[in-house]
Amino acid sequence: MSDTKVLGCLGSGQLGRMVAIAAKKLGATVHFFSPEAGSPGEQITGLATVAAYDDFGALSQFASQVSAVVCEFENVPSQALELLASRVRVFPAPRVLHICQHRLREKTFLSESGFPVVPFATVDDLAGLRRAVNSIGFPSVLKTAGFGYDGKGQRKLGPADDLASALSNTPPPCVLEQFLDFQLELSVIVARDTTGDIRTWGPIENVHRNHILDTSICPARISAETARAATDLAMRVARHIDVVGLLCVEMFLERNGTIRVNELAPRPHNSGHLTIEASRTSQFEQLARIALGMPMGPTEMTSPSVMLNLLGDLWQNTSPDWSVVDTKKNCHLHLYGKAIPKPGRKMGHLTAIAPTVDEAYTQASTLRKNIFG
Ligand code: ADP
Ligand code: MG
Q1: Nearest CA to ligand 1 atom 15
Q2: Is the distance from the beta carbon of residue 248 to the nearest atom of ligand 1 less than 6 Å?
Q3: Which residue owns the Cα nearest ligand 1 atom 22?
Q4: Which of 27, 32, 280, 355 is within CB 3.0–4.6 Å of 48 for a Cys-Cys bond?
């Protein structure tokens, strides 16, 4: 019988796929659980249970096939994770996932714990939205509390907007947040293992387009003092929520230097893709190490780097010319094995490493332009 360790992964997209690639490097493999057959994750290991997240029979069998479970996304029903956690160690714990999968619970947790967040109000109905608008003002952003990602379930509101129609497109419960005219967005990914050892990467600077991450830059173009403050804030949040596994803390840096937490993701994060080439241990390898009970690896950055997402939109008017990809330029191409390039779908990414982030940005953006014409 093989003694290869098998990690379970809830979700089987690109994040799980990159965990699987890292786990294989450590002599382990990943068994995926998701409703999609032939997924980006399954393509790497050939091990998958294709079932709904509330199929408790399938979950129970899955628990008997794996030594621990990691999650690649937050929208797993709490009961599914509870069931798995009663059988094997789960990263993150169900309690952490329960907070992070719901914007209201997450923001309430953060603000009640004294962490700086964007001013917000709870919205349950139209009268509640009117009250929220009175206290928060315009411009503001209305966000559905559950199941949002990549800006889905969000709507920017100004004085000319019809509140009833905004609410019909953003089903309650919601949060209404002040729209911040921030200087830039940052993320700090924290890794914490079962012994309480804690490591961070970054901080990473993030640029979004249409609410979807487009560019990540590391090191972020901020002062050493701001970098320390962002890292310290992320570590305090990770310790306070008592996460074991990964926690990405997304933040806004205001023009006056104030840092506010935007949201938390207790899993590998898109902004951390550049840790594959630019750090001694990637976020994916770190999660695999934690779940396998191995000591964490060093997280120093080995080079400035820039990551650009490749969204399905790029495929709409052209077929990509991969012949221009030249690895000698230190640009690394990752494709996720997704068959249909829909607009907004994350199909792959490019990471460039170079002596400065400006050079890395130039190399990655030139390559992206050349591939897609
Ligand atoms: P998601 O779960 O979709 O990532 P976020 O709340 O992180 O949701 O929103 C996505 C992006 O939309 C943010 O990274 C930011 O660029 C923009 N955004 C969200 N909330 C605000 C806000 N209050 N003020 C300004 N921009 C915002
Ligand atoms: Mg976000």
Answers
A1: 211
A2: no
A3: 179
A4: 32
pTM: 0.97
Q: Is the C-beta atom of 205 inside 6 A of ligand 1?
A: no
The per-residue pLDDT for range 291-340, each reduced to its tens digit, is 999 999 999 999 999 999 999 999 998 899 999 987 667 999 999 999 99
Task: Determine the length of the chain.
Answer: 373
151 lines ligand 1 (CB under 6 A): yes
CB 125 within 8 A of CB 172: yes
Residue with CA nearest ligand 1 atom 21 = 179
Beta bridge partners of 204: 187
* Nearest listed ligand to the Cα of residue 248: 2
Exposure string over 110-142, b if 16+ CB within 10 A, otherwise e: beeeebebbebbbbeeeebbeebbeebeeebbb
Q: What percent of the chain has pLDDT over 70?
A: 99
The answer, yes or no, to whether any atom of ligand 1 lies below 6 A from the CB of 153, is no
Grouping H, G, I as helix, E, B as strand and the rest as coil, residue 355 is: coil
| Distance separating alpha carbons of residues 172 and 114, to the nearest angstrom | 26
- 120 close to 112: Cβ distance less than 8 angstroms: no
Q: Which of 262, 263, 264 to mutate to test the pocket of ligand 1 (most atoms within 8 A of CB)?
A: 262
Kindly state if the Cβ of 183 falls inside 6 Å of ligand 1: no
In this structure, are residues 324 and 367 in contact, taking their beta carbons and an 8 Å threshold?
yes
d(CA 202, CA 222): 11
151 C-alpha to center of ligand 1: Å? Answer: 7
Return the residue matching tokens 């607009």. 343
Q: Which helix (H) or strand (E) holds 64?
A: none
Strands 212-218 and 305-311: antiparallel
State both tokens at 364.
């990655």
